[in-house]
Amino acid sequence: MQHKEFKAESKRLLDMMINSIYTHKEIFLRELISNASDAIDKLYFKSLTDTSVGMGKDDFAITIAVDKDKKTVTVSDNGIGMTEEELENNLGTIAQSGSLAFKKENDLGEDVDIIGQFGVGFYSTFMVAKEVQVLSKAFGSDKAYLWKSDGVDGYTIEEAEKDTAGTVITMFLKDDTEDEKYSRYCDQFQIQSLVKKYSDYIRFPIRMEVEHTHYTEEGKDPEITREVETLNSMTPIWKRNKNELTEEDYNNFYTEKFMDYEPPVAHIHSKNEGLATYDALLYIPARAPFDYYSKDYEKGLQLYSSGVLIMDKCADLLPDWFSFVKGVVDSEDLSLNISRELLQQDRQLKIIAKNLEKSIKNELAKMLKNDREKYEKFYEVFGLQFKFGIYQSYGAANETLKDLLMFKSSFEDGKNVTLSEYVSRMKEGQEHIYYACGETKERIDMLPQMEKIKDKGIEVLYLTQDVDEFTLKVMINYDGKTFKSISDADVDLDTEEEKEELKKLDEENKDMFTFMQEAIKDKAKTVRLSKKLKTHPVCLSSDGGPISIEMEKVLNAMPQNDSNRVKAEKALEINPGHPIFEKLRSLYAEDKDTLTKYSKMLYDQALLIEGMNIDDPVEFANLVCELMTK
Ligand code: ADP
Question: What percentage of the chain's residues is helix, strand, coil (to nearest 5)?
């Protein structure tokens, strides 16, 4: 028999477990039962195609036994079992647990409750046990092995005796302390209630020999009988009737199954017959998993065929824009032995996916209508996904998502509004939905163009996320109303008269503007007057072309090589009502040298206001200094 150390990572997790002050030590039982159920699922699945298993659905069970004298709790299953190698690999190293990675990545202190946030599986036994023994025989193997560990000094594996395939896990409970009565886990009532609480929907019976005390006559010793009982109700929650289920039932199922410590914001329970027959129970989580906005995140729903799990994360059931949804789908239309490749083309599956998409959309629309606060909270977390959804689907998701979108708006100072709310408030004769881009609402409010448009009482959407403008460009319009950036050259808020006047003024100063444009060279295509400004001297406008100023900013901020850099066509616009305009005119008449310098400075100012870098900060600083010392 060989003694082995745990791998370093496992050791750290074990240390955390053993010394855990975690209050929910009781979850160890849930973890073991869930492992047992998975192991049975695997063998049951095999039994459907392999007659040598020699077992039917009713033969499978999980058995719990407690021994008050020895202070042990034993969980057994007649599932697939583990080979010597599997014992070594599965229990000797930390398996899939994301806990450590998460902790490292986020540099969290020791006292953060990560055990509660992630399932930690088998290792959780060491929160309550001073020694754990795992006796296992893999299906198809003629040898059994015994794995033993006290959690601290590593583990041993030796050959052992076991008749049938499966696994028996025995925990030798820690000694009771002031704060923690570990012996309570030998109490049958405790076990019964833990199974009910955490494992009621396990599809296989969880059995235990239960002692009943009968008091017959006063003064006489009570009579004690023992009977094997099934502790769980087994019927999966999604198969049950909605009206038998409480909010708590739904929430408990979610938190256990999907390892979330926060209850979901909504659930959708649907039973369908017709083109496709299925039961589905979907959840909208309250928070995003830590890897949600990374490429490591895997979307998908659990897929069952008549109660048997066939895929843990069936991605084809969810469009990307609803990738945050968790849940289960159970359909008798799907074959058990269907391969992943065939499943992708399955017609039934496609119909189910379409239906689910519709239900999710409707549920969210309902929430938006009936519980605005809840929806806004949800949208804070997952709204970005909708914007990406529209953009990445080249608009295919428009219909589904357009009414779920929200943007902050100048209406009521930065509150979230939907596009339909915006449209319902549009001024008479207003053709466009106006928006402005910037890092924050505050930055956007500082844009020179904002002042005037707000004065006119026109609502402006604040686009503060990088993807926002790309999304609107893909959408093109909402309800026939096109989107327009307040930085576009052709923003048109003026009367015909005002336009005429501006045109005339522009014409009169044409030569000066040409001179100024030459002074700043190819940085801006045109220099001209603008009616967009109220008190500010200058601003930049996107002067047509597919790329706006904001998109230039976003695209150029992405890692790339220089040859891919993009440039928006820009116009430098000057406020004819600002004293600077007169100053420029007199310089044009008397001092062209200074006008050249002023043109450069004004252009750089406009860039800075837009939140962009200026090409030559040294030149800019020198020009300002020159002016200061004049
Ligand atoms: P997880 O269940 O998250 O993978 P665990 O630490 O609980 O992590 O278990 C590690 C692995 O050990 C499981 O994935 C499974 O392969 C194996 N295992 C655990 N318990 C059993 C069991 N009762 N029967 C068969 N295999 C098991």
Answer: 45, 20, 35
Q: 408 CB contacts (<8 Å, ≥6 apart)?
A: 414, 415, 416, 417, 441, 461, 462, 464
Q: What is the DSSP string of 70-86?
A: TTEEEEEE-SS---HHH
If we measure between CA atoms, which residue out of 286, 296, 301, 253 comes closest to residue 98?
Answer: 296
- Domains of the chain plus CATH, in order, are 2-230 (3.30.565.10), 237-372 (3.30.230.80), 406-485 (3.40.50.11260), 496-628 (1.20.120.790)
579: left (phi over 0), alpha (psi -120 to 50) or beta: alpha
**In the structure encoding, which two tokens stand for residue 432, read together?**
């466009």
Pick from 418, 410, 399: which is nearest to 435 by CA?
410
Kindly tell me if the per-residue pLDDT of 106 is higher than 80.
no
pLDDT at 146 over 60: yes
Cβ(35) – ligand 1 distance below 6 Å: yes
Q: Quick check: CB of 92 below 6 Å from ligand 1?
A: no
In angstroms, rounded to a whole number, what is the distance separating the alpha carbons of residues 191 and 195? 6
User: What letter would DSSP give residue 395?
Assistant: T
DSSP letters along 424-457, please?
HTPPTT--EEEEEE-SSHHHHHTSHHHHHHHHTT
Q: Evaluate if residue 94 carries a pLDDT over 80.
A: no
How much is the average pLDDT of 242-258? 91
Lowest mean pLDDT among 414-428, 458-472, 537-551: 537-551
CA-nearest residue for atom 21, ligand 1, is: 35
CA distance 302 to 122: 22
Residue whose CA is at the smallest distance from ligand 1 atom 11: 90
CB neighbour list of residue 560: distance below 8 Å, 6 or more residues apart: none
Q: Tokens 């990545």 label which residue? A: 105
d(CA 590, CA 348): 80
Who's near 101: CB < 8 A, 6+ residues apart?
Answer: none
Predicted TM-score of the model (pTM): 0.64
Identify the weakest region by mean pLDDT among 1-5, 33-37, 340-344, 490-494: 340-344
Mean pLDDT to the nearest integer, 95-124: 48
CA-nearest residue, atom 12 of ligand 1? 90
Rounded to 10°, the helix 27-47/188-199 angle is: 60
d(CA 164, CA 381): 49
The pLDDT, as a whole number, for residue 87 is: 93
- State the pLDDT confidence band at 188, using cuts at 50, 70 and 90: very high
43 lines ligand 1 (CB under 6 A): no
Tokens 């600002």 belong to 578
State if residue 204 touches ligand 1 by the CB under 6 angstroms criterion: no
Average pLDDT of 273-288?
93
3-state secondary structure of 259: coil
Which residues lie below 8 Å from residue 485, measured CB to CB, with a gap of 6+?
434, 435, 436, 437, 469, 491, 542, 548, 550
pLDDT tens column, 537-594: 999 888 877 788 888 877 877 776 666 778 888 899 999 999 999 999 999 999 999 9
* Residues contacting residue 366 through CB under 8 Å, at least 6 positions apart: none
Tokens standing for 459? Answer: 């609502």
**CB of 486 shorter than 6 A to ligand 1:** no
